[in-house]
Amino acid sequence: MREEIRIGSLGPAISHYTDAVRFGDLLFISGVVAWDQDGNIVGKGDVIAQTEKIFDSLGQILAAAGCGFADMLTVTIFLRDIEDRAKINPVRERVFGDSRPASTLVEVSKLVYPDLLIEVNAVAGIPKN
């Protein structure tokens, strides 16, 4: 069964998508960027602040589906500057703890808005209750 998940506190969708789609025991999370409920970018010029906001938003999406960061299977990170990897790694290590998802890191020339420095999408497994 397919279920769309939308978290109102994550801000308005800027296109035709939902925050995540649950299909069976899998959760497919759309690209998450650092903006607030009103669509304002959080942490302009600060990749660490943007990363913190993104992982906070990911946590909300995961919780809405009944799972957490330990259930993340794969994560894809899109960075405007690949050299920022060392800056964001401590955030990842804190959030994921002992669990390690499969991961892909890609440098991109642009994201949907010029002030965005990072975007993250993911797939999680939803535990059976």
How would you characterize this protein structure?
The chain is α+β, with helices and mostly antiparallel strands. It has one domain (2-125): 2-Layer Sandwich (60s Ribosomal Protein L30, Chain: A), CATH 3.30.1330. It is built from two helices and six strands, in the order βββαβαββ. It has helices spanning 47-64, 85-96, and strands spanning 2-5, 20-23, 26-32, 72-79, 102-107, 118-125. Strands 1-2-3-6-4-5 form a six-stranded mixed sheet, covered by helices on one side. Helix 2 links the parallel strand 4 and strand 5. Helix 1 (47-64) packs parallel to helix 2. The longest helix is centred in the middle third of the chain and has 18 residues, at 47-64. It is globular, with a radius of gyration of 14 Å.
